[in-house]
Write a structure and sequence with these properties.
There is one protein chain. The chain is an alpha/beta fold and 408 residues long. The protein has a single domain, classed as L-arginine/glycine Amidinotransferase, Chain A, CATH 3.75.10.10. The protein is 30% helix and 21% strand. It contains eleven helices and 18 strands. A hairpin with a 4-residue loop joins β6 and β7. It is globular.
Length: 408
């Protein structure tokens, strides 16, 4: 598979996901805040909702399209003794407080399934002393990395709660054959810097947006921008967004829907001024130039006049309610073919007002399982799917996906 993403909306050909497993059932009310969850999730229903979402993806993707489960990729990777040793070495280095060096040889001798269980659920067979917290946020694969053109930006989580996921992703990029062609172009964030994939939006292979959020530090953003600008990107738009739980990443308040349309949460995007900086390379220097707002900056550097469709529609209360339930966090399967939670009805109504036809998940799968999906500027489709349990994790369709291949 050609690992390349040159826009947010190119026809999806390959995507990495994680269907929720037992790790979400290990989140109890006392741990939920530490594990970055606002509520506890019922595993069986969350799995069903996620698998239904994947049915939409598979229906919309071309015949050779592929949905990768990240646990399958990781299992394949750590079957190699070199990859297993690399991953465990990073665990020992990044989490000295767990004293994992005491069981290093035991970890090295684990089979792939048991090491996978230890990594995701935090449980080590036959041991209570070395149990770790689970990693329920693995559901949100978007945050682990971002493919930009033929490069890959490997994220580094802002919190220890998600750092194990970052180490997992680093191991995949280094050792799994899926990434063999792009690992030479890997951009890595280290030390106390942080960046997460939810803050990285690819307008084109020449223009990338990065949110400076509560999860992406200034130094992480600048390191990522330096790497991208050295790998073919011409402009990085740094977008300063509110540092708060409700807008933890740029994609919680802003996403691309078509070649000329975006979904935006008005208070944090459309009503903000002086919050965008254009970063470009001039020789060995990065030059930063202030821009008044995101819409104008997008037009200037993309040459496209984007329409911003309001998350929640015109009603102020609905805007806040639906942003909270990821109304702005849509995922494009193709230009103008997008997926979002069905509960965000006002956002869907706004999309209908902008020429989208509306289909629920079952209608879409039934229709396009029998007939090929014809892509055109006129055939814009907004697809709803049920996510009553998934929504409790505070992440929408874009959060739960890491595209690795899109049509150019």
């Amino acid at each position: 598979m050609d690992i390349n993403v040159s826009s947010e909306i190119g026809h999806l050909q390959g995507v990495i996901v994680h269907t929720p497993g037992h790790e979400v059932s290990l989140v109890n009310p006392e741990l939920k805040d530490e594990l970055l969850f606002d509520d506890i999730i019922f595993e069986e229903d969350a799995r069903g909702e996620h698998l239904d979402m994947l049915d939409i993806f598979k229906t919309a993707m071309p015949e050779n399209g592929k949905v990768f489960e990240i646990v399958d990729l990781f299992r394949e990777t750590i079957s190699s003794s070199d990859a297993r040793a690399y991953y465990i070495e990073q665990l020992l280095r990044e989490f000295p407080e767990y004293n994992l060096s005491a069981i290093e040889q035991e970890l090295l001798s684990l089979n792939a399934d048991d090491l996978l269980t230890f990594s995701i659920q935090g449980t080590l067979k036959g041991s209570k002393e070395f149990n770790l917290l689970p990693t329920p946020n693995l559901l949100f694969t978007r945050d682990l990395a971002a493919v930009v053109g033929d490069s890959i930006l490997v994220s580094r989580a802002a919190t220890d709660t998600r750092l194990r996921e970052s180490l997992l992703m680093e191991t995949l990029v280094e050792y799994h054959p899926l990434f063999s062609d792009v690992k030479k172009n890997a951009i890595r964030i280290s030390g106390h810097q942080s960046i997460e994939g939810g803050d990285v939006l690819v307008e084109s292979d020449k223009l990338v947006l990065i949110g400076m959020s509560e999860r992406t530090s200034f130094t992480g953003l600048m390191k990522a921008a330096e790497g991208l600008l050295s790998h073919g990107v011409e402009t990085v738009l740094a977008v300063d967004i509110p540092k708060q739980r409700s807008s933890m990443h740029l994609d919680t308040i802003f996403t691309f829907a078509s070649a000329s349309e975006c979904i935006a949460f008005p208070p944090a995007i459309m009503e903000q001024k002086d919050n965008v900086v254009a970063l470009q390379k001039d020789g060995d220097r990065i030059v930063a130039e202030h821009r008044s707002d995101l819409q104008k900056a997008l037009k200037e550097f993309s040459g496209r006049d984007y329409t911003f469709i309001k998350c929640g529609g015109e009603d102020r209360t609905s805007q806040f309610r639906e942003q909270w339930t990821d109304g702005a966090n849509v995922f494009a399967l193709a230009p103008g073919v997008i997926v979002g939670y069905e509960r965000n009805t006002k956002t869907f109504n706004a999309l209908i007002d902008h020429g989208y036809s509306f289909m629920n998940q079952f209608e879409f799968v039934e229709e396009y399982s029998r007939n090929p999906l014809v892509l055109s500027e006129e055939n814009k489709i907004a697809i709803s799917f049920q996510g009553h349990e998934l929504c409790r994790g505070r992440g929408g369709a874009r959060c739960m996906t890491m595209p690795v291949s899109r049509a150019k």
